[in-house]
Amino acid sequence: MEMTRADGTPLRVLVVDDEQNIAELIGMALRYEGWDVHQALTGTKAVAAAREFKPDAVVLDMMLPDFDGMEVLRRMRSFDPGVPVVFLTARDSVEDRVAGLTAGGDDYVTKPFSLEELVARLRALLRRAGAQAVVHEHVLTVGDLTLDEDSHEVFRGGDEVALTATEFELLRFLMRNPRRVLSKAQILDRVWNYDFGGQANVVELYISYLRKKIDAGREPMIHTMRGAGYVLKPAGGDAADGGGAP
Predict the structure, then answer these.
(1) 3-state secondary structure of 172
(2) Which of 34, 164, 172, 223 is 20 to 30 A from 203, alpha carbon to alpha carbon?
(3) What is the third-level CATH fold of 2-133?
């Protein structure tokens, strides 16, 4: 079930982590939920972003290069006392958990963690904070490609495309993020639920399967961005380092 602010606009989540790859992976997972995401890599930038962005929730790393997450929380709570906060940390002791929660954190997730678990915890916090559930038609459309999330039917240019369950999930992820470059690590985590790792060649294999079914005999929609990942865009768009091999 999609969630929004009470006024129907996308929920806003601030992600604070000095490891940029982790911040980007979290941001991608939250954007997949339809939420508006802002990222900060330091405590100073996090506090400034919280003032301007006015997030509905914050994912906050305990260890930052300038000052720690608890100080970030203290400063944020001085002007936004009720914002829900999920702490991230590599430390898993009872003392650290108690310290984070005592400082005013609402939840606590230890690294390495599952993106699915983090999203689930955020959804629970946001529901308690008043986020609204909304139902939309579950049909994704990119160019002449459509995907029905309920019936699992896929059409390109009016022709039905038969996909396996895994191919369907991969295409759904690509279509939920059109024109956005998705790394192999992001695809692995979202489609295969590997936590920040896994065998990248399985992504290449399934991208090639999809291309044979989606792009065969047509102008390609799935493009390889060498050294970065894959992007799906309407046929006719420019691909920076286009299509070829996975």
Answers:
(1) helix
(2) 34
(3) Rossmann fold (3.40.50)
Three-state SS for 60?
strand
Does residue 185 sit in helix, strand or coil? helix
d(CA 77, CA 170): 39
Q: In which band, very low, low, confident or very high, does the pLDDT at 26 lie, cut at 50, 70 and 90?
A: very high
Asked if the model's pLDDT at residue 53 lies above 60, the reply is yes
In the chain, domain spans: 2-133, 139-232
Top-level class of domain 139-232: mainly alpha
Secondary-structure percent of the chain, ordered helix, strand, coil, rounded to 5: 35, 20, 40
Would you place residue 27 in the very low, low, confident or very high pLDDT band (cuts 50, 70, 90)? very high
Structure token digits, residue 245 = 């091999």
